[in-house]
Structures are given as structure tokens and as C-alpha cells.
Amino acid sequence: MLVAAALLGIVVFGGWLRLSNANWDSGDHLHPDERYLTQVASSIRWPSSPWQYLDVHHSPLSPYRTEAGRDYLYGQLPLFAGKLFATALGEDDYARLNIDGRRLSALVDTASIVLVFLLGLVLFERWGRRVAAIGALTAAALYAVTVTMIQTAHFFTMESWLVFFTLLTVLLSAHALRGSIQANGRFRLAHVLVGASVGLTVACKVSGALVAVPVLLGLLGETAVITRRAGSIEGYVRACAGALTMLCGRLIPLRCSMVPGCAALQRTSPGSTWMTWVAREPSLMSSECPTSTSRSRNG
């Protein structure tokens, strides 16, 4: 009970730090990346059916079909989530959408405080419940007051989302590995959730694919344990099943254009390569990106 109360206090304080003063620039759209995301988010429209959404080339929700987002480089999960949140509040115009996006980023990063606590419990459990609780609370408190995370939580950008799903993936991976060992190697729902979480991480930012490295290492470790216990054939089957699960988790929840640059790649000529498209990224991230100077504060 005392641990729960302490965690609640940490979350409330961390949430206050992140949610306070959301309109820190008085509506001037001073953050360049956020300004660009707001332009794109205010330009896209909701599809009339799930089939229209899945149609990458004609979906009104695709940023690549808008003038501002034709060279969109970021993940689309935070973009769509910010658009949905602002639409629900009736504030999905250029002047107000970024403020709602900031508040959503703050809420997501506040949830990350809880994930840090849960991950701390897993990492410190070998030293007993008391030490695990103290270590987890300390980690959550330190994360709650981390200046960088408080700062990024005040932006309608990808960083808070990327951190949240990275933490979620690592936490689910730890539970999947521990659960498989304790349950005599049974394949669990946690493996499916790990795959989905990896997909969502990549949907926040393409660099989120790096989270697959520790996940794969954990899967290999689990395979070694199961192989020693149940035999090599079952261990190899589990490894293939786990890899397939992560692949399905990446493909099922998110359509192809969720990966930044995928739609742009589809528009290139057959002879073009991924590396050729990536080579264009520096110029797209420079001053050539659209700005909001032509827009008024009221949209």
C-alpha cells in the first residue's frame, strides 16, 4: 500500500511537470519539427471506411497525399494519435492542434513513469521484494524529474512516444522470457504482445527498429534455455515461432506506409533503391522543409 501511494505521488508530480504550461510559446509554433507535424496533421483527413484507410495511394489520412507531407519522414502513429485527440476535442485546426498534441505527448510520457517502475521491479526482483520496490521507486522518481523527458513532453513530436513503446517492448520481453522459463517453456500471449509492441515502436520513429536487438537477444537466450530443457527440435521451433510472431506483430497492426519513407519509396521508379531515397533525407530535413510563416496564429 505504501509503495502504491509513493508511486501515485511520483506519477502525479511527474504528470504535473509535463502537463503544465503546454502553450509555452503562446501559439507561435516555435518548434520547427512540431510546426511541420502540425501542418501535416491539419492537412490530412479521416477516411470514410477501413478499406480507404488501407489504400495507401488514395487514403486521405496519408500524409504523402498532402502538399506539406509529400516528403514526410517521421512515424505516423504519433501523427494519427495527435490528429485523433485533437479531432475528439474539436480542435484539429492548425492553430490549436499542436497544443493538444503536446498534452497527449505529456500523458504518454507520464505513463512511461509507470513503465520505468514496472521494469525496475523486474530488474531488482532477485534481491527481494523490498529492494525491488525501493529500486523501482527510485528509478521512477529519477525519470519523473529528468529534464530532457520533461522538455520533450512539451512538444508534439515523436520522442515521448518512442520512449514509451521502447520501454513497453523491453518490459514485455522480460515478462515473456521469465514466464516461458517458469511455465516450462509454454509459448505465451506475451510473445505476441512483444511483436505488436516492436511494430508500434517502429511506427513512432524508424530508429525504433533498434529495440529489436535486445528482443532478439532475449529470444535467443530463451531458445537456449528451452533447448537445454526440452530438446533441440522444440527449441528451434520456438525460435522460428517467436521470430514469426514479431514479424506478424509488425505487419498486422500497421499498414505499409506506417514506416517513414515507405510511401515515398513506392512513388520512386523501379530502379530506385532504399539507400537512394535515404540519401535525400538531409536535404528534406534542412531549410527546404515547409514552415508556418505563411500562416497566421489563428490558422
Structure notes:
- The protein has 299 residues and is mainly α.
- The protein has two domains: 1-19 and 30-60 and 73-157, no CATH class; 158-254.
- It is built from 14 helices and no strands.
- The chain has helices spanning 2-19, 32-43, 50-54, 77-88, 94-124, 129-144, 147-152, 159-182, 189-204, 212-230, 232-251, 262-267, 274-278, 281-284.
- The longest helix has 31 residues, at 94-124.
Summarize it.
By secondary structure, this protein is mainly alpha-helical. It contains 14 helices and no strands. The protein has two domains: 135 residues, no CATH class; 97 residues.
From the helix content, strand content and strand pairing, which structural class follows?
Answer: mainly alpha
Shape: flat
Report how far the terminal alpha carbons are from each other. Answer: 49 Å
- Estimated helix fraction: 55-70%
Q: In angstroms, what is the radius of gyration? A: 21 Å
| Number of E strands | 0
Arithmetic mean pLDDT:
78
The biggest sheet, with number of strands, parallel, antiparallel or mixed sense and barrel status, is:
none
- Fraction of residues in β-strands: under 5%
Tally of separate helices: 14
Order of helices and strands: HHHHHHHHHHHHHH
What is the count of distinct domains?
Answer: 2
Poorly predicted runs of 5 or more residues:
248-278, 287-299
